[in-house]
Amino acid sequence: MASMKKLERHQARTAYLFITPTMLLFIVFTVIPVFMALYLSFTNYDVISKKDWVGLDNYKRLIDDTLLWTTFKNVLIYSVIFVPLNIMISLSLAMLMNRAWRGVKLFRTLNYLPTLTSAVAAATVWIWLLHPEYGLVNGLLSSIGITGPAWVAQTETAMMSIIMLTLWQSVGSNMIIYLAGLQGVPEYLYESAKLDGATKWDSFRYITWPQLRPTTFLVSTMSIIGALQLFDQAFVLTQGGPANVTKTPVYLIYQQGFNQLQMGYASAQAFVLAVAILIFSLINMKISKAEESVV
User: Which residues pair with 43 in a beta bridge?
Assistant: First the structure.
């Protein structure tokens, strides 16, 4: 018994030794900056002059900031289109790549590669792809008699341009997540359904989709958080324009903090965004639990 307890203490010390560097990095680069930003949100800090305590003035200012609420409306529109498309395309690709046919590993890799591309590099390439005169997209449209729009310069298509880019970058990683979920579904369920005369659609509706609910919850939550934190693509592709239709909360925080040097107000905006992410994540969790209880 004594030797067992000694072994357990040794294992515990070893575990703490291994996690200590990670915990120190997390505290230094995440926990401390969060508390510093919280403090700055109650000041008028502008980097140059001495910061003064202003209490809730920054948060009161947010209420009348129409541009801030415009950015939230923009990411809401983006999320309503992006999240369902992301789930549908990722799941469709995963089901296609889950089959044992020749070359499937190569196609899995090709679909995953865009995920490894940096957002800035991908957006730079897509600027050329969506060029109104020389871009590949409009070139393909013109080959079938359609005149393509100025994708990133028109208010009607600017957000769709960002959606196409982010879908191209994100479906690969979500495909891998869904692929892992599909491979975890017991095969005997499909065999039993087949013996009962179930069609492929019945198997998907009553077996695959219910079994993938935890996976879908993960993918949808990550997609919602990513949508609310959208920045790189909007910054490079459209610079928040035209007419602020692609400006996002993170883009606005960046402008307030680093362009206008209003660090205190930018910190307040950041905490409002954090609360919004928490609220939408909880709503998604409630919806997922409600669907599981129905099933």
Answer: 53
